[in-house]
């Protein structure tokens, strides 16, 4: 290490002491007796060495002068961070003598350095780069000052050392402070953007000019919902045309450029003249930041034609009302919006093109502006000179600084298209998208308006439901269902003409509202016309479907004075028509309401019937029609309610299916029947096959097959002990699931039968694919044989189907000997009915079996 206070800056070559020793040796040699030639060589060598020492001393003085001439503190450090030398500027900057610094660790000058601070320095220097860092140095009196230190490596006496130049940043910080004060005080807006057009900073003038208060946009106000940006010709600017983008792209200053900014939320048009300046980082060929400096030139542009063009692009015009001179100023775009060929001279001209309501609104708003200095925003409707209607959004306020409110100014925006679009949306919200007629909400709104007017109290409602629509929709698909609804809409519309208002209530339900004051029988006439309109079948390709209507009629005020009440009663009448015979109409009556209450009471008590143990099963024998021998029986459910008494199955079963209670009841019937079969077997009466009815609602995944298997296992019965009877509805509810469930049941040995065949859907394409054992002839047809030709024909057809498919056949509802003989001749082997026996209790059937 160099001694304290000794300079280490030397010219290249030997150390100074080595030169002195060499010169002394030569002098001593010359005093010795030597040959002349050798003396001449030594003299020449001494002269050369003396000249070299003179040059070295001169070079050393130059290096020392240069070292001390550097205005910034320069320190030379050893590899471990010990100060080896310090220039004059460093001694002055640190307020210490050279002796106090040289030989001390660098932490003396910078006490905040961490223990491993030299690691990143040497890592950078070994890469051949300069290490730069900002730190705080300390003077001898303990005061601090910021510096930026640049470090490089050099070799001294075979050892690597560090030369560190520290630049005092105090003046730069002062300059930055002055720069910030300047930005905050000038009246020009200044914004700084990065390459993603994010706004990094903006001075107060920028906020003031753009009227942003404290809300600074995150990015440049181009292609944003909040701003419309145009050039000086009024053409909308894209991001690539924005002056900031051009400065980034071209890397040059974009001088004064006029840009128009329309701020949508505040309805204000602002014009600015902006200059953009690119900022380059070190060693970059493209700018990484851009400064934008701009001035507000809105006032200068107000009377300029370019301002009008920009407003026209956004359909926004400007206006000003000079109260003192009674003069109205409109920009060209404002005149175009109002349809004014000549500039209006006063406010009355503007008011004259508005309708009465809008005229009054504007007068009141103008008065409030003068009295309260409160701005306004109005949507006004009027008519142009050419007769076309318009809508405008008018914004107005007192100009800032106008204490007397002598000038009121603002903007006019043409909002006719948006208002028309809004009206279109309202119409769409009231219209059924498939059929184009009114929807449910629109119909209820119209009906409420009619009922609220005493003069329209005679309104009537027809509630229409399409019979067998589900069949078409399920069999042929939703497209066919949509076609059916469209054609049904056309037929109903033609049937009612102009005497009723048609709406689709949803699904296959429609409502017709009509006036019955002048013609009390009009609702019934319209209902009959609609019924007649559905007589022709509906054509779908080669297929024809007979689709009829069930119609319920309710009148105001006797059947309801509120829309929902009237609709509900018409709906109730429609269901009564559908329950009775369909294809017709039914007027609402108090009796219907009473029956509805009864149904609700039945459904309410039905939910508790199982818990109250109110159900029981009776068993009707199925006999060989030729011998009368009992071959099986059908389990029939009976319900005795404590309050309602004995209720027929045809009354409560439909309710149970509607409410879903049929699933729980069906499970009870299944287990009760299996338990009874087990008891008969235990009594030695043999295996009696019991048929039970299964509702379509019991088909839910694999539930039915699982329930049957559980019941059979619980009572140790073979599958042949059970016969399950299904209505034709299960054929089309879910064909794949039905096939799977039927196959599982048949695999258990359970007998499968279609009940009341021919009465419902008769979907033969499903029937031929089902693994069933037999069909059951409905008593609906048995009751008419052998006299009624239609019933005879149906029975013959069903028997023919059963024979062709190899299915068994059972007839139910046999009440006379003539019916038995007819069925025997037809080839029906098994039957049941009152001719043989009514439903028997388990004990009575046991006696019959014995």
UniProtKB/TrEMBL annotation:
What SUPFAM superfamilies has UniProt attached to this entry? EAL domain-like, Nucleotide cyclase, PYP-like sensor domain (PAS domain)
Chain ranges of the PAS domain: 59-112
The record places domain GGDEF at 457-590
Residue span(s) of domain EAL = 599-850
- Give the protein's recorded name: EAL domain-containing protein
- Give the PAC domain ranges: 131-181, 376-427
């Amino acid at each position: 290490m160099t001694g304290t206070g000794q300079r280490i800056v030397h010219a290249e070559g030997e150390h100074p002491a080595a030169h002195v020793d060499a010169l002394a040796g030569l002098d001593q040699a010359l005093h010795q007796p030597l040959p002349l030639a050798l003396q001449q060589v030594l003299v020449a060598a001494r002269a050369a060495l003396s000249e070299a020492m003179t040059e070295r001393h001169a070079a050393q003085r130059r290096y020392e002068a240069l070292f001390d001439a550097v205005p910034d503190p320069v320190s030379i450090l050893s590899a471990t961070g010990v100060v080896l030398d310090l220039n004059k500027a460093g001694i002055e900057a640190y307020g210490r003598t050279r002796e106090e610094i040289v030989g001390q660790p660098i932490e003396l000058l910078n006490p905040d350095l961490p223990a491993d601070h030299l690691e990143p320095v040497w890592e950078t220097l070994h890469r051949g780069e300069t290490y730069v860092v900002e730190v705080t140095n300390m003077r001898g009196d303990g005061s601090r000052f910021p510096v930026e230190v640049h470090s490089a490596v050099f070799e001294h006496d075979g050892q690597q050392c560090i030369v560190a130049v520290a630049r005092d940043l105090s003046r730069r910080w002062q300059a930055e402070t002055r720069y910030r004060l300047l930005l905050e005080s000038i009246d020009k807006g200044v914004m700084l953007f990065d390459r993603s057009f994010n706004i990094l900073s903006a001075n107060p003038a920028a906020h003031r000019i753009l009227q942003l208060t404290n809300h600074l946009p995150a990015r440049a106000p181009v292609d944003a919902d909040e701003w419309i940006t145009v050039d000086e010709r009024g053409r909308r600017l894209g991001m690539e045309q924005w002056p900031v983008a051009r400065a980034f792209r071209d890397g040059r200053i974009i001088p004064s450029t006029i840009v128009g900014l329309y701020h949508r939320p505040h309805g204000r048009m602002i014009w600015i003249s902006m200059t953009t300046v690119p900022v380059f980082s070190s060693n970059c060929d493209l700018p990484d930041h851009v400064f934008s400096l701009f001035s507000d030139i809105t006032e200068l542009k107000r009377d300029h034609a370019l301002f009008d063009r920009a407003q026209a692009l956004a359909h926004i015009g400007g206006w000003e009302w000079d109260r003192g001179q009674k003069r109205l100023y409109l920009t060209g775009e404002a005149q175009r919006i109002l349809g004014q060929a000549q500039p209006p001279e006063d406010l009355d001209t503007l008011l004259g093109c508005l309708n009465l309501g809008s005229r009054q609104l504007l007068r009141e708003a103008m008065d409030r502006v003068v009295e309260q200095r409160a701005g306004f925003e109005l949507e006004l409707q009027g008519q142009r000179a050419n007769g076309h209607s318009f809508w405008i959004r008018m914004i107005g306020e007192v100009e800032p600084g106008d204490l007397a409110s002598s000038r009121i100014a603002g903007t006019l925006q043409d909002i006719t298209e948006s208002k028309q679009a809004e009206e279109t949306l309202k119409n769409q919200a009231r219209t059924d998208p498939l059929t184009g007629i009114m929807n449910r909400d629109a119909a209820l709104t119209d009906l409420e308006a009619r009922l609220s007017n005493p003069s329209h109290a005679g309104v009537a409602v027809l509630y229409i439901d399409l019979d067998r629509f589900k069949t078409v929709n399920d069999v042929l698909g939703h497209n066919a269902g949509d076609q059916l609804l469209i054609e049904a809409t056309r037929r109903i519309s033609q049937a009612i003409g102009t005497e009723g208002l048609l709406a689709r209530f949803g699904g296959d339900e429609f409502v017709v509202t009509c006036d019955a004051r002048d013609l009390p029988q009009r609702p019934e006439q319209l209902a009959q016309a609609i019924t007649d309109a559905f007589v022709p079948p509906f054509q779908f390709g080669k297929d024809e479907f007979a689709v009829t209507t069930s119609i319920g009629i309710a009148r105001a005020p006797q059947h309801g004075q509120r829309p929902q009440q009237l609709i509900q009663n018409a709906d109730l009448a429609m269901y009564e028509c559908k329950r009775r015979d369909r294809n017709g109409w039914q007027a609402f009556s108090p009796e219907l309401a009473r029956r509805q209450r009864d149904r609700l009471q039945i459904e309410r008590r039905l939910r508790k019937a199982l818990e109250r143990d109110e159900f029981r099963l009776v068993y009707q024998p199925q006999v060989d029609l030729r011998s009368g021998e009992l071959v099986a029986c059908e389990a029939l459910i009976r319900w005795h309610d404590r309050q309602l008494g004995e209720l027929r199955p045809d009354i409560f079963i439909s309710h149970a299916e509607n409410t879903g209670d049929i699933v729980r009841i069906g499970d009870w019937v299944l287990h009760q029947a299996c338990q009874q079969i087990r008891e008969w077997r235990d009594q030695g009466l043999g295996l009696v096959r019991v048929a039970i009815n299964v509702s379509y609602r019991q088909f839910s995944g694999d539930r039915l097959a699982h329930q049957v298997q559980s019941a059979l296992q619980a009572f140790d019965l073979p599958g042949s002990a059970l016969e399950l009877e299904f209505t034709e509805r299960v054929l089309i509810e879910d064909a794949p699931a039905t096939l799977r469930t039927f196959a599982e049941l048949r695999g258990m040995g359970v007998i499968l039968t279609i009940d009341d065949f021919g009465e419902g859907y008769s979907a033969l394409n499903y029937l031929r694919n089902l693994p069933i054992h037999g069909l059951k002839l409905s008593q609906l047809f048995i009751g008419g044989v052998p006299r009624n030709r239609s019933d005879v024909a149906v029975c013959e057809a069903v028997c023919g189907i059963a024979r062709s498919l190899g299915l068994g056949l059972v007839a139910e509802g046999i009440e006379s000997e003539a019916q038995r003989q007819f069925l025997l001749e037809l080839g029906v082997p098994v039957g049941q009915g009152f001719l043989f026996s009514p439903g028997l209790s388990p004990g009575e059937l046991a006696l019959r079996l014995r």
